[in-house]
Amino acid sequence: MYLSLVGLTRGGAMTEFQEKLRQQHEESLHRELEALLSTADHADAQSSRKDFQGFQKLFHRFLQVKGPSVEWSKINRPPEQSVQPYEKIKAKGLPADISTCLSKLAVVKLNGGLGTSMGCKGPKSLISVRNENTFLDLTVQQIEHLNKTFNTDVPLVLMNSFNTDDDTKKILQKYKHHRVNIHTFNQSRYPRINKESLLPIAKNMAVNGENAEAWYPPGHGDIYSSFSNSGLLDKLITEGKEYIFVSNIDNLGATVDLFILHHLMSQPADKRCEFIMEVTDKTRADVKGGTLIQYDDHLRLLEIAQVPKAHVDEFKSVTKFKIFNTNNLWISLPAIRRLQDKNALDMEIIVNPKTLEGGLNVIQLETAVGAAIKSFSNAMGVNVPRSRFLPVKTSSDLLLVMSNLYSLDAGSLTMSKRREFPTTPHVKLGSSFTKVQEFLSRFDNIPDMLELDHLTVSGDVTFGKNVSLKGTVIIIANHGDRIDIPAGAMLENKIVSGNLRILDH
Predict the structure, then answer these.
(1) In which residues is UTP bound (predicted)?
(2) Considering 345, 362, 388, which residue would you say is the last residue of a domain?
């Protein structure tokens, strides 16, 4: 069904056939969703109905979309003035009353993800990343420091998902005596649909048991509608907040930047910039990251999922597309309200195919928060230093942020002044390090990495205390062998392979 609908040619009779098929799919979906709602209790049914209305809009657009969402020939590099270098914005300096600017800001962290990819149960934001501090601890410390330093009241808003909400709310009790007001709202819960029938696979509204894989949080583009539905958007506007700074909670570089905030606040009212996307220069590690383009006279985010296969290599090229989206975004609250009221937020649909444990092929329909940039007035990019993009997606990233490459001050990580190069080392840890618990068990303590350029570790390898790594270090334990790097070892431009085991006797 799915293929027959999307793959049809565009003849007149076919169009009529497609139209009927589309209507049929939408009616069937509507019936199934109503049947699901009838299994919910009253409170859950109300919020789920709002979610389902959002899903039906997305589903309708998914059926309407013909072919790729971009024409490659119409893509241009963004004009010079639309992506400003951070240095230019910083050169303006700061006003005497920066606390007035801060009084109009709220910080939103995207907190819908689980730690499963790193072998942890529960919300990813509760993984310890530095000195026993979790992502959430560091975020609270940063904002509390800001509020104390400038005698202001910047609130923290967490966008949770149905996967993370309960666990996060339990933890929030511990911040009661911190100087930061914390609000939460939930992003929508959408039904996964069968790839063939395009119908939900859920049997009822439960999120556990046989239904555990039936639901998903629909990507961070859902922030606009769920923020609005929660009532928090209007609450913050009533309190005089004008902008939100949005970022992923696992990006430890995403702190409130006073220079960007001042830039936003100092624009003339008629030219007020409603959306800033922080971008940074691509390296080989970032070739898949979304990039800013000029398209139909608008700034637009281009994701790899939208690129026709024939142009993927061109998209990954560091010469044509030099920058990528860090997902640190500054967005006007009144503008979100206006666009929500007019139903004018236009975000490309990301079709995310998944195969469930039993082998069933399903589709998730998602959107990305940055894709809405084209709907906002006077939107721009700011090319920020790499230090503002420090995501922890894997244990390799975790090793970097736990090491002496960074120092921790009031919840913020900064690159050590003792490191000669501003770039981070390239670290690749093998599958024996994927899970956080296993990763931690392989280090007596984290090695000195101040002079490290590249580290590859594969196989059964452990590190003793006070190991120091410099230059390029490659350690490969063959299958069945084990390598123990002894305490106090200094490896500089070394390849260690085979079987190395130091035993006490």
Answers:
(1) 124, 187, 219, 250, 393
(2) 388
